[in-house]
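# nightly structure sweep
# worker-07 picked up a monomer target from the shared queue
# config: single-sequence mode, recycle default, output format = structure tokens
# input follows
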Amino acid sequence: MRLGILLVVILGLNILSFQNQALWLFAWALPVTLLMLLQAYNKWPVWLLTWVLMSVGTIVGMRAMVPLPTPIAEIFLVLMSVSTLLPYWLHTKYSARITGFCVTLVLPIAATSLEFFSAAISPWGTWGALANTQIDNPVLAQLSSLTGLSGITFLIYWVAAVVFYVWSHRQVRASWLPAAVSLVVTLVLVTGYGMYRLSYTPPSTNIRVGIISVSGLPVM
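# output follows
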């Protein structure tokens, strides 16, 4: 029952996170839900089913934005779903070998690195980057002035990894408390910086613009 609920939630979050009018909050919830599912049900049938659902959700949410004909676009999005799950596989594989707070860095480092190198070789650049889902989150978007899109992507995945770490170690306070404090401090700093950037108004500069009217229509 729990497995079915998690799979349905993942499908819904994937569709809502990566469509034309992305709801930025759902993009934060998706990595947490994927971690909960793949850590609790670390079996190849579950991974396969997750990949299928991620592929369906990605096609539904992003097909209209892919500048490729059918069926090439669908094949591309299915392969894109494989690359999306790769960081979770690395996290699952190495989480048992890494102890303490450092385990929360596996997922964000893997996901951010994969996204960075994919953008470097892709003809579409940062198209499809997770950070693009935060365009309607202006406070967080200010982080890109310091770190680029990679900083936003890293933060989203790191929040997911820390939330999952705190949840899975909730019985031992001394284990999860440093991770939780680090997360809260980081979010406060990022939020404060974003609010400062949005409230800061640089000195205005008057720019002279010429307009020519042709048949009653203004032309720059």
